Amino acid sequence: MKLYKVGGSIRDRFLNRAIHDTDYVVIGTDEKCFLAGFPSARPVGKKKAVYILDGNEYTLSHSKNIEEDLGSRDLTINALAEDDEGRIFSHPQSFEDIKNKILRPVNQKNFFDDPLRVFRAARFAAEFPDFYISDELTGIMKKTSEKGILSSITAERVGMEVLKAFAAPVPSRFLKLLFSTDSLNPWLEEIVNFPQIPAGPKPYHNGSLLEHTYNVMDRLAGDKLLVWMGFCHDLGKSLTDEKILPHHYGHEKTGVQLAERIGQRLRLPKAFIKAGKTASLWHMKAGTYGDLRPGTRVDMLTSLLKDELFEEVFKLSAADKQNDYFVIAKKDMETILKVKLPEEFRDLGEKSASKIRELRCQAISGSKGT
User: Fold this and answer.
1) 197 and 286 part of one domain
2) Residues forming beta bridges with residue 43, ordered by sequence position
3) Cα dist. 324→272, 286, 306, 310, 313 in Å?
4) Does residue 161 contact residue 116 with C-beta atoms inside 8 Å?
């Protein structure tokens, strides 16, 4: 049994990047023998024998040797390994591509064998924004999509790549590469028509819905939940009747259903599904918060307080509208939370809810009434 460090930890060392995870490949053994040597290892793989041990991932390879294993990987920059003596093994192109900052596939067959590599490649494009995407990579991604095998990937694996990409420095690059290689269907089919849809009427918007979504996502880079909200906030515009373009009346509500549909399809955590729906529903009002009536403000703040997404929605709004009403909204939130329901109106169901809403509206409007 031979153990090798592989992939990202080796690559990032040569790129002088911080190393967050260390993965291992195990060659020359089976699961029974591996567990005999590492009884505390916990299985996590379904199709492959993959284990977690001390926070690190160990994959049992069927390859005869490490060279054969490296030949089965996705990108040349990831086809690196190190044994316990510190010896480095690599694909012939690995170090040249690391030096020249090129994303290049190891070979076509590997993408056909595991089409998730289409999404992994797009994720690496977002993680390494200064790397050039080779023609070989775009060509293989297109061929993989054309074979109609992207639908064979398990939802959880695609969802995991989406979230990793949305945590990257330039998340829009993930979508850009999927767009350019016709790799959106079936997982992100709702945004296929984004390039043909105007983001909105001038002077508020000048480009397409796709360009606008890219910009919002990149302004929110660094927080994958916020980037996901940026991705979801204008989904409803994809359903706008062509007759009313470039306007998008009511897209906030229609987008809620789409955000939920995509989140569930990708098996994303419930917190992300809720955040996507909330982003669609409230982003417009957050962007015009200063002009809202007290009742609308109270309803909005109450809803965001319940969803625990108050600050996130206003950060999204600032990235979307370039209007930042967070300070004003925070003051209103502090005001309504101080309002107490009089004893005589408690435990009266809808009447209690109506009264507390009335009192909160009066409080933020400066009314002296009770």
Assistant:
1) yes
2) 51
3) 23, 9, 21, 13, 11
4) yes
End-to-end CA distance of the chain, in Å? 77
CATH number reported for the structural domain that contains residue 145 in this entry: 1.10.110.30
| Residues 6+ away with beta carbon under 8 Å from 330 | none
Place 368 in a pLDDT band, splitting at 50, 70 and 90: very low
Q: Provide the number of structural domains found in the chain.
A: 4
Tokens representing 304? 């965001």
Q: Are residues 316 and 360 in the same domain?
A: no
Q: Which range of residues forms the domain containing residue 82?
A: 1-93
What does the pLDDT look like over 99-149, one tens digit per residue? 999 999 999 999 999 999 999 999 999 999 999 999 999 999 999 999 999
Question: 159 and 82 in one domain?
Answer: no
Cα–Cα distance for residue pair 268/188, rounded to 1 Å: 13
Q: Is 101 left (phi over 0), alpha (psi -120 to 50) or beta?
A: left
Domain check: are 235 and 292 in the same one?
A: yes
One domain for residues 249 and 210: yes
- Asked if 284 and 239 sit in the same domain, the reply is yes
Q: How far is Cα 233 from Cα 286, in angstroms, rounded to an integer? A: 12
User: What b/e string do you get for 5-30 counting C-beta neighbours within 10 Å, with b at 16 or more?
Assistant: bbbbbbbbeebeeeeeeebbbbbebe
Question: Is 332 within the bounds of a domain?
Answer: no
| Model pLDDT for residues 306-316, shown as the tens digit of each residue | 999 999 999 99
Does residue 310 belong to any structural domain of this protein?
yes
Instruction: Write out the two tokens for 156.
Output: 């959880």
Under 8 Å between Cβ of 172 and 218: yes
Q: What is the pLDDT of residues 78-98, one digit of tens each?
A: 999 999 899 999 999 999 999
Contact 76, 106 (CB under 8 A): yes
